[in-house]
Amino acid sequence: MSPVAFVSRRTPLVMALAGIVLSACSTTEFIDPDILSDPIDLEYQLVPSGDPDAPDGILLRWLEPADSRVTSYVIYSRGSTTANWSRRAETSSSTFHDSGIPHLQYFVASQDAAGNESDGSNVVTVDERNRLSAPTELRAVSLDRAVQLTWDPDARLEDPTLFDYYRIYSTPASASGVCNDDNWVLEGTTVSEDFLATGLVNGASRCFTVSTVSRDGHESLWSDTWLDTPRYDSRFIFAYAHQADPSASGFRFFDVASQTIGLVTSGSRSDLDFRVDRHADGSLWLTPVRGDVRIALYSNDPVIDLTSIDIAPLTGFAASAIEAVPGYAYVFAVTYPDGTHYGALRVTHATSDYMIFDWAYQSAPGNPELSRSKIGSTGGPI
Fold first, then answer.
1. Is 86 found in the same domain as 184?
2. 221 plus 242 within the same structural domain
3. Does the pTM exceed 0.85?
């Protein structure tokens, strides 16, 4: 046998060969030829499913040892700290995905071509204490074919070192605002407290919710659910006063004949939602034209943006003209063959000859939502 002694990588040996005095600080590490090196730094990450108690699986990762004899790895697991270990799988890579609800504990052993195994890596335990709280104060702003979601950062700030990202879910909602619990889908993920859901259908209500995911994949409970209905809108629309240019002084939120949303047209038409008129003092006024159009001032104060107009008021509508003042918002109740629809308008600029405005239109009949809505305890919008 060779006079050189071999030891495991776990036990450095200071050797003194006959006739040679080594330095007191000198050590040499060898690989024991009879013991395979273990995988190093095993860690896990759960695969979220939307149900915090039933993840889709677990992903194991480890560092390969510097041992050329290792040809594969064997994964062991058990469901409790007192159960026997069971052989789960074998792989030649340094990762393993175990589908379904994971066991409580895992470790990995190296294996050589003859089937010999190492002692095993460190043991990882799926620790439910790493689950963070659900996001709070979910809010939504209705946009054209999209919804902008925001929520408070409390869940992330609960433990910033443990936080990883958020998951956003949605499902269709009925006309009465009841969420379809059989059709929740993942909209996407984000690391910030806001998310833009796009590609939605205007007038089709959806429920939204958010969960928090920790660095090891634990998913929180869901946040409160919010209902939102994307609606048509447009910015910086130009319309003349009827007294300055009659051909471009009228507006319809929805033109039935041309199937056009947001139509600036002749102010001489009798089927308009409103016409822009100039009074003798040079002020501009929004004048309802059709008999089934009503208008209301949204707020006694200016609003900063079109998206500030959230829910159409229940009262205050009238068929009389109202002055168009820059910064102020107005809500229209317009009746079409399928029912009453609501439109919003914010004046951005006005002179004696023309007006520039932003508008939004809710294509869902009877739905007063122009910006955002919360789901109440009964499942309906509040």
1. no
2. no
3. no
Residues β-bridged to residue 323 = 285
- Amino acid at site 127: D
- Using only C-alpha atoms, the chain has a radius of gyration, in whole angstroms, of 33
Spatial distance between the Cα atoms of 86 and 293, rounded to a whole number of angstroms: 73
Cα angle 329-273-364, degrees, rounded to a multiple of 5: 75
Residue 29 falls inside a structural domain:
no
Domain annotation covers residue 45: yes
* pLDDT for 5 beyond 80: no
Question: In the predicted model, what is the mean pLDDT of residues 277-289?
Answer: 97
Residues 95 and 157 in one domain: no
Tokens found for residue 257: 């004949």
CATH of the domain at 67: 2.60.40.10
Please, are residues 132 and 77 in contact by the beta-carbon 8 Å criterion? no
Determine the pLDDT at residue 33. 63
Q: What is the H or E stretch that residue 336 is in?
A: strand 329-336
Residue 374 has pLDDT above 80, yes or no: no
Same domain assignment for residues 211 and 237: no
Structure tokens at 68: 């050329």
CA–CA separation, 33 and 11 (whole Å) = 14
What's the confidence (pLDDT) of residue 368?
Answer: 86
What one-letter code names the amino acid at 141? Answer: V
Confidence band of 176 (pLDDT split at 50, 70, 90): confident
Q: Are 369 and 381 in contact (CB under 8 A)?
A: yes
Domain boundaries, position 346? 232-362
- Count up the domains in the chain and report the number: 3
52 domain residue, yes or no: yes
